[in-house]
Specification:
Blueprint (H helix, E strand, L loop, with lengths): L2 H11 L3 H20 L8 E3 L3 H7 L5 H7 L3 E2 L3 E3 L7 H17 L10 H4 L8 H16 L6 H10 L2 H25 L14 H17 L1 E2 L12 E7 L6 E9 L5 E7 L2 H7 L1 E2 L1 H14 L4 E6 L3 E8 L4 E6 L4 E2 L4 H5 L7 E4 L4 E3 L8 H7 L5 H16 L6 H18 L22 H6 L13 E3 L6 E7 L4 E5 L5 E6 L7 E3 L3 E5 L4 E5 L6 E9 L5 E10 L1 E3 L4 E9 L8 E6 L5 E3 L7 E9 L10 E7 L8 E9 L1
Parallel strand pairs: 4-8, 15-22
Antiparallel strand pairs: 1-3, 2-3, 5-6, 6-7, 9-10, 9-13, 10-11, 11-12, 13-14, 16-17, 16-30, 17-18, 19-22, 20-21, 21-29, 22-28, 23-27, 23-30, 24-29, 25-26, 25-28
Helix pairs in contact: 1-4, 2-3, 2-5, 8-12, 9-10, 11-12
């Protein structure tokens, strides 16, 4: 707690019990009113001739000092808390006073924090239901923090708005260029038209999302030891009395046993400074940024332990899923299809309303309903409706806004009656696993399996004539086939969607602290292997030459080896020859001349200690090097 505020509270303790209790109750009410209505000026005023001030605050030593310390300033006949003043210290005071009130009178435990909203809890709640519904209230109250104009001003200062606007204009010009090319070439299926170019505000949101993930916020896995810089492992979680954080995670150094703390901040103002955390912190700040920039945005909480953002699309008249941890928009089924989540409750919170949006994120309606055991459906629906009525009936809620929100809600309910967008035609293979978080962390959460992803893909290298040019970028995670003029003629998203065979649980690892990405084998495996298969389907052609360039990195005696197996007889698959690749960064050979099939193999092995699996890195690239290629393969064909 801030020292000056602590001194004010010490002064309060010097009063007689009756005077102190009266002053603390009055201060608590002032703090709670402001936190519940951060933009309503009437709650930021304390009239000096108010009976509460005269009878409760003035007689108590330290009471008025508390108001001045949290930011109140004196006007003619009242005290005022300016909009630009941070609410962090006020939150600290409110938290202390609320806890103290409960200690003095335990019966007030349910009502000290905005009694009106807590009175909406159903009278027949059992403990499990009450805990679940209390969590909904907490999130509903928390999103009001994003409406604090002082906090928004601080957020605005760290967003590179001009740079993002320039990036948005570049994106628009690229779309316009593609639209013109498609129209000129009169392709049978145009990829872009002028009508397909999205609204500028949504394109700007894409740029904001990309910047947020790769430049602004940092994902935290294992911490670095403050004493020896070695890796740390999770030890325990301890409670925190600081209202700006939900808890403190403690990790132990694997080398010297030093304990390192990771505070889990829940106050977005603190996160603007630390700029690190996991999905809770990411969605917290990103939702604040969206509100700061004028987007209708809401904070979405998944009861199976994930959070993200939804933004209202004016152009499409619907809520769009936005996950800042993944830099992904409008892929609501990614959690169920890609991460294999068994969803239960997905609840969205905005300054206007609470909404159960589970049905936007699932195709397994019956399965979800069977797993929803925290509260009866009727009780949950009635409680959400009572919360919305409470919020939209407050004194400072605009009538026209209420009408707009009601209309928007009806549109959403109609949308949720149908299957999620593209659900019937979208294949599960189009969804990928979570990119954030360590392999062990994702495995423990049940969001990935240790089994290798599907493979068995073959590239037809004679499909486009006598040359084959393949490019793969680990940053974009995309294969591109180009012609001799470097024009992209085909793309495949996802590294595993272009491989033939996998061993050792190979996966794509992103290091957000070092801003690097690469392919690596799974922990606990001694080696990993990836194979790409290239075939010549045209009977009149065969392979003449091959050149290869690939990015690799090894540490602590780890090894990445490459080889090419060439097949020369289509009937007898035993007629093959294996050629080791002595330098994968610049390899060229004509020894494969006459072959009609190639299997390119990369093997990762070696390393030291518990992190040996991580010491052989395939396609290692910086996250900022979007234009760089991780794999370049050129094959020249000739007539047989």
């Amino acid at each position: 707690m801030d020292k000056s505020l602590q001194q004010c509270l010490e002064l309060l303790k010097e009063n007689e019990d009756e005077i102190r209790n009266g002053a603390e109750n009055a201060l608590l009410t002032i703090c709670q009113n402001i936190l519940s209505h951060p933009n309503d000026k009437q709650y930021r005023k304390v009239l000096l001739d108010d009976p509460v001030v005269i009878q409760k605050l003035l007689p108590a030593t330290g009471a008025m000092e508390c108001l001045f310390d949290i930011g109140f300033v004196e006007a003619t006949d009242y005290l005022l808390l300016p909009q630009e003043v941070s609410l962090t210290k006020l939150q600290t005071l409110e938290s202390f006073l609320a806890k103290n009130a409960i200690k003095i009178n335990p019966a007030r435990a349910r009502t000290v924090r905005n009694s009106a909203i807590y009175d909406l809890l159903p009278a027949t709640c059992n403990k499990k239901e009450k805990d679940f519904l209390m969590g909904i209230i907490t999130n509903f109250q928390h999103v009001l923090r994003y409406e604090d104009e002082g906090l928004q001003e601080k957020a605005r200062k760290v967003i590179p708005i001009m740079e993002l606007e320039v990036a948005t204009m570049k994106r628009i010009r690229e779309l316009q260029k593609h639209a013109k090319i498609a129209q000129t070439e009169k392709t049978a299926k145009k990829q872009y038209t002028e009508d397909d170019i999205e609204d500028v505000k949504e394109l700007f949101l894409m740029e904001l999302l990309h910047w947020f993930k790769y430049e602004f916020f940092t994902w935290v896995d294992g911490l670095k030891c403050t004493a020896c810089s070695s890796e740390c492992k999770y030890l325990e979680v301890i409670k925190s009395d600081d209202p700006t954080m939900s808890r403190i995670e403690v990790q132990r150094c694997t080398n010297c046993d030093t304990l390192v703390q990771f505070p889990r901040y829940c106050d977005p103002e603190q996160l603007l400074i630390s700029r690190r955390g996991r999905c809770g912190e990411w969605a917290n700040v990103f939702t604040l940024f969206c509100r700061t920039l004028g987007y209708d945005a809401r904070y979405v909480h998944d009861e199976t332990d994930h959070v993200w953002t939804e933004v209202w699309s004016i152009r499409e008249q619907r809520w769009i899923h936005v996950d800042p941890c993944e830099d992904i928009m409008d892929r609501p089924l990614m959690y169920e299809k890609g991460w294999k989540k068994k969803l239960t409750y997905v609840i969205a919170f905005s300054k206007d309303e609470v909404q159960d949006v589970t049905w936007r994120y699932t195709r397994d309606l019956s399965g979800v309903l069977k797993r929803r055991k925290l509260c009866s459906e009727t009780k949950l629906l009635q409680f959400i409706e009572s919360l919305n009525k409470y919020r939209q009936s407050s004194a400072n809620y605009n009538a026209s806004r209420k009408q707009y929100v009601t209309k928007r809600k009806l549109m959403e309910l109609v949308e949720l009656l149908h299957m999620p967008k593209g659900q019937n035609s979208d294949d599960d293979d189009n969804y990928q696993e979570r990119s954030t978080g360590s392999y062990e962390w994702k495995l423990a959460r049940g969001e990935i399996s240790q089994a290798s992803p599907k493979a068995n893909y073959s590239w037809d290298i004679s499909k486009y004539g006598d040359t084959f040019h393949l490019r793969y970028s680990i940053v974009e995670d995309r294969y591109k086939l180009t012609n001799n003029d470097s024009k992209v003629i085909e793309e495949i998203s996802g590294w595993h969607n272009g491989v033939y065979e996998l061993q050792g649980g190979i996966f794509r690892k992103v290091e957000h602290d070092w801003k690097m990405v690469y392919l690596v084998r799974s922990p606990g495996t001694s080696r990993g292997k990836i194979q790409w298969n290239f075939v010549v389907s045209n009977p009149n052609l065969c392979i003449k030459t091959i050149s290869l360039k690939a990015a690799v990195k090894t540490f602590f005696e780890a090894n990445v080896s490459w080889e090419v197996e060439a097949f020369f007889d289509k009937v007898d698959q035993n007629k093959s020859a294996v050629f080791p690749v002595d330098d994968c960064t610049n390899y060229y050979t004509d020894k494969l001349k006459g072959s009609i099939k190639l299997i390119l193999t990369a093997t990762v092995s070696g390393g030291q200690g518990d992190c040996a699996w991580q010491h052989a890195q395939l396609f290692r690239q910086s996250l900022k090097s979007e234009g760089d290629q991780s794999l370049v393969l050129d094959i020249q064909l000739e007539n047989r």
